[in-house]
Amino acid sequence: MSIFVKNAWYVAAWSTEIDDQLRRFTILDEHIVMFRKSDGSVAALEDRCPHRHLPLSKGKRIGDTVQCGYHGLTFDGTTGMCTRVPGQTNLPRSAYVTSYAIEERHGIVWIWMGDPETADPSTIFDMPQFTDPNWAVHHGDALHVQSNYLNVAENLVDPAHVSFVHPTTLGNAASENVPVHVQTEGEAIVAWRWIRDAEPIGFFKNFGDFDGNVDRWHYYYLYTPCTAMIDFGSAPAEAAIGEDERDKGVRIFALHFITPVTETYSIDRWMHVRNTALDDPQAEETMDKMFRTAFQEDKEILEAVQAEENRPAKRRPIRIAIDKGPLVYRKRINELLEKERTEDLASDPSPAFVYHD
């Protein structure tokens, strides 16, 4: 039974990862070959020839088609239909590979893994800061994590772990007992808290240049199936800014686009958007270094958790108050999976049934 939601947009790659060469990517345990066509757009095809199953990524490009390296069957880069079988003129109707819908924007390549008829580009994650000149946008890395995507995503709607996993980078002891607020009614699951009049965390000691106590915040937004946006920042405590005045402080959005590779392997492509040091490349390098340190801390925790989950369980895990966001997230994922497993034939009710709801 699939653990992956297929009718959703996933980040397949940064735009810089795809060129005119045939390159294999694995997404939701499916192998896909991608390349840039002659017009610069991205082709994404099932990476398996339907004849003898050689990966098409082992073949070669011929214009905007892909030729299998075993017997030369050739497939259109847009439709996936076979355009040539050497030695015969007829093309079997079963000679095709799946073609995936692709959208590219803001240097990110998105792929739709499910029913192409339901692929709606308007549902792709976006934010106005991507094109706002008052904000700087910077792509980070692709963090490879040997862990199930659900565990990785849950970690990104969990402010409580920051005090313990990231004590020198994104958190400190001042936040250990500060209550976490959770909102689960909207499109995103949101968890947040403010730490007032406290010592700056390591990140802002190095970058924010604060010389006294600060008010700082963490807002975690998790969108199904696995895109997270973390809004965090600090302002001088004496400014006493309100919750809706975060732009007055040093404000950063850390974005995480999680791509499930297999059941126990995920890729977290992360980037940041900031309202300070807009034209300072050194700021980007400094932030990248600090983020890499923090995310390596997450990676070690998540991979250790996965290693234990792979072993036989002696008893069910306990749940505590901070788990509200992750529990709602799991419920939403299960609802999406169940929806994909069934076909709704009641949307146009039969006249034999009279509804009084």
From TrEMBL:
Gene3D superfamilies, A to Z: Naphthalene 1,2-dioxygenase Alpha Subunit, Chain A, domain 1 (3.90.380.10), Rieske [2Fe-2S] iron-sulphur domain (2.102.10.10)
One of the GO BP terms on file: methylation
Keywords from the UniProt entry: 2Fe-2S, Iron, Iron-sulfur, Metal-binding, Methyltransferase, Monooxygenase, Oxidoreductase, Transferase
Source taxon at top rank: Bacteria
Residues annotated as domain Rieske: 9-111
GO molecular function: 2 iron, 2 sulfur cluster binding; metal ion binding; methyltransferase activity; monooxygenase activity
Keyword Oxidoreductase on entry: yes
Protein name: Vanillate O-demethylase monooxygenase subunit
Organism: Allosediminivita pacifica
Taxonomy of the source species: Bacteria, Pseudomonadati, Pseudomonadota, Alphaproteobacteria, Rhodobacterales
